[in-house]
């Protein structure tokens, strides 16, 4: 997965073969914010500009910028799985939250 991060925003990056450019879009918000560049440096600069412009326009118009994911995640799982997670995290000397966070980070390849 090709992603970039800036000011808590995450962008998904794709390569457009036809135009021979990198194209990015902010993820985790409903507003559409895109950018592009021919090189990695151009792409990164365009990403930063897009986020900064998005935040500035939101402030100017009085419409709050949408926030990326908060980091709070509610899960409903089978009680047996919950018990197993609690046991494994305790054996590893971690809270359930720490253990699950680490497992999800590895699974998401971040």
Automatic annotation (TrEMBL):
Q: Which GO terms describe its biological process?
A: regulation of DNA-templated transcription
InterPro entries according to UniProt: Ribbon_hlx_hlx, TTHA1013/TTHA0281-like, Uncharacterised_HicB
Query: What's one Pfam family here?
Result: HicB
For this entry, the protein name equals: Toxin-antitoxin system HicB family antitoxin
């Amino acid at each position: 997965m090709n992603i970039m991060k800036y000011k808590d925003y995450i962008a998904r990056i794709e390569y457009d073969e036809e135009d021979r450019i990198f194209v990015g879009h902010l993820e985790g918000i409903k507003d559409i914010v895109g950018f592009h560049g021919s090189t990695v440096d151009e792409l990164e600069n365009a990403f930063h500009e897009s986020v900064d412009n998005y935040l500035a326009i939101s402030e100017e118009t009085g419409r709050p910028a949408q926030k990326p994911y908060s980091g709070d995640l509610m899960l409903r799982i089978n009680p047996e799985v919950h018990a197993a997670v609690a046991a494994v995290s305790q054996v590893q000397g971690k809270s359930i939250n720490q253990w699950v966070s680490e497992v999800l980070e590895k699974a998401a390849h971040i």
